[in-house]
């Protein structure tokens, strides 16, 4: 860190000093500039949103604020005091904690062990007293009104419970500044409102939040300040109430953005049925029957626990159903076999890109062409030039922010990784494209690109199945089947209103099928 900028933020500690003040932060990864003289000031007791397109530099800033990455230049101060040395993890833990989308708790240990094991074991030289550990954990969770049985293995926690446990753990280290990195991405409507209630309660108790989200309506609902990054730079910081939605989007993108909508022309009556699902029943009892024709986009909507992802995973072979038949272009698929689904012409964007989507250490080119060796070589010999050519087209078509096809996928931001998954699904020229929550974690402009690509492929005759609870995703559909508690409870064709659809997803629809 440079001496001059450190001097600029040195001063008396505490008082009115910001909880965190990052000034003139620059960071490069090879030739990529992740942050260029960017900064943020977060004041005590506020809930401050950090927004920006995929690759804008948000995660890099968080990683610098958390002491996990060193900045090339610039200075960070907490409560007016310079940040501790990188290696002093305890000191960082007392200042802030970050609750990531991916859990940092150990699934095989109990909640109590996750909360206390390191601390109890460290340096004490004495045996762990399990009853003491449990009581401490219960007391800690009770202090922050988290209702969870501390004896249960962490693997059994819901996403919501896990986040609350991680927040309580952070507070127990003394941190009063918490970074929430896309906390609502995996929650349903009810879970989101419980999280927001919790944030408001904690804020009243003096906890400060930095809230990262691609859902701008959430920023308006829960935050009082917003900072926008674009292309590695700080663009604006303003009270949320003073920045219109349009101005916010313009700050993020440098332009105005409108989402694509379905062009609402029904597929021709003679169009071939490319997906036929008959009486499919998943292992946990969710059921669906549906058809998708060439050139048609059909949605399966539903909140958390509706069964929409389960049925989608059974359709594409990610799980083995208990019964029913799935056929792609007349060919019946082998249950539970993704390779068979791919061979039959399915292109897939799975929900969990970390687990099923990508090989992070391989390049964009290798990931995009993984399922289409025949398109990039002959007789089993891959042509690097053809492979890179195909990857370059994908990078251009999907506006992936990367310096070239050889960049490892692990170096890309989350939203750009999602575009690589989409690129791979399209590389096989699928007859049927199945997208499971395709725009989760994707910024507004990238969403527009991804959904625009769906419009293009459907015009070329691909059948598309979109499985999502995002209205923007569902708006491109010709028809939507809404699931609730494992059943399709509502089907709606063109002309549906957002309100009807949301009501049906929440299980309060009046026109049940
Ligand atoms: N370890 C790394 N190695 C190389 N490049 C990286 C690394 N981490 C981030 N980058 C690059 O730095 C830039 C900023 O990425 P960052 O992850 O901070 O963006 P972000 O705003 O969090 O995006 P998203 O919303 O997609 O998560 C991107 O171009 C990314 O590819």
UniProtKB/TrEMBL annotation:
Keyword flag Transcription regulation: no
CDD domains: ABC_Carb_Monos_I
Keywords linked to the UniProt accession: ATP-binding, Nucleotide-binding, Repeat, Sugar transport, Transport
Entry GO MF terms: ATP binding; ATP hydrolysis activity
Cited SUPFAM superfamilies: P-loop containing nucleoside triphosphate hydrolases
ABC transporter domain location: 20-256, 252-510
Classification via PANTHER family: CARBOHYDRATE TRANSPORT ATP-BINDING PROTEIN MG119-RELATED, GALACTOFURANOSE TRANSPORTER ATP-BINDING PROTEIN YTFR
Record-given protein name: Simple sugar transport system ATP-binding protein
Organism of provenance: Micromonospora phaseoli
């Amino acid at each position: 860190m440079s001496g001059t900028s450190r001097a600029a933020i040195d001063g008396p500690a505490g008082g009115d000093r910001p909880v965190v003040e990052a000034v003139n932060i620059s960071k490069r990864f090879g030739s990529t500039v992740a942050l260029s003289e960017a900064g943020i000031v977060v004041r005590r007791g506020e809930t401050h949103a950090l927004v920006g397109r995929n690759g804008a530099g948000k995660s890099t800033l968080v990683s610098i604020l958390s002491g996990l990455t060193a900045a090339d230049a610039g200075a960070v101060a907490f409560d007016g005091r310079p940040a501790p040395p990188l290696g002093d993890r305890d000191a960082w833990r007392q200042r802030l904690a970050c609750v990531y989308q991916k859990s940092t708790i150990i699934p095989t240990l109990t909640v109590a062990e996750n909360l206390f094991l390191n601390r109890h074991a460290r340096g004490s030289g004495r045996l762990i007293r399990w009853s003491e550990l449990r009581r401490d954990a219960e007391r800690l969770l009770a202090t922050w009104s988290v209702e969870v049985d501390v004896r249960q293995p962490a693997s059994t926690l819901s996403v919501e419970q896990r986040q609350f446990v991680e927040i309580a753990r952070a507070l127990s280290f003394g941190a009063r500044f918490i970074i929430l990195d896309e906390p609502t991405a995996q929650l349903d409507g009810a879970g989101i409102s419980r999280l927001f209630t919790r944030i408001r309660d904690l804020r009243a108790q003096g906890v400060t939040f930095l809230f990262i989200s691609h859902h701008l309506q959430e920023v308006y609902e829960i935050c009082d300040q917003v900072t926008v990054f674009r292309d590695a730079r700080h663009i604006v910081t303003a009270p949320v109430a003073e920045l219109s939605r349009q101005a916010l989007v313009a700050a993020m993108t440098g332009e105005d953005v409108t989402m694509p909508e379905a062009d609402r022309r029904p597929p021709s009556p003679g169009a071939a049925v490319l997906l036929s699902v008959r009486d499919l029943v998943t292992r946990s009892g969710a059921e669906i029957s549906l058809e998708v024709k060439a050139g048609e986009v059909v949605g399966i909507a539903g909140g958390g626990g509706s069964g929409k992802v389960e049925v989608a995973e059974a359709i594409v072979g990610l799980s083995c159903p208990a019964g029913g038949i799935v056929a792609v272009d007349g060919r019946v698929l082998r249950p539970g076999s993704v390779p068979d689904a791919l061979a039959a012409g399915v292109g897939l964007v799975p929900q969990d890109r970390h687990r099923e989507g990508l090989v992070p250490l391989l390049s964009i080119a290798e990931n995009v062409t993984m399922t289409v060796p025949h398109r990039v070589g002959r007789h089993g010999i891959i042509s690097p030039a053809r492979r890179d050519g195909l990857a370059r087209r994908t990078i251009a078509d999907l506006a992936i922010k990367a310096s070239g096809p050889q960049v490892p996928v692990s170096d890309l931001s989350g939203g750009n990784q999602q575009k690589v998954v989409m690129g791979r699904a399209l590389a096989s020229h699928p007859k049927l494209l199945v997208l499971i929550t395709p725009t989760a974690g994707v910024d507004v402009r990238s969403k527009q690109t991804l959904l625009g690509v769906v419009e293009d492929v459907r015009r070329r005759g691909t059948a598309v199945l979109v499985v999502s609870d995002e209205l923007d995703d569902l708006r491109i559909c010709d028809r939507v089947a809404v699931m609730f508690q494992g059943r399709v409870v509502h089907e709606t064709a063109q002309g549906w209103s957002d309100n009807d659809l949301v009501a049906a997803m929440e299980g309060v629809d009046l026109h049940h099928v």
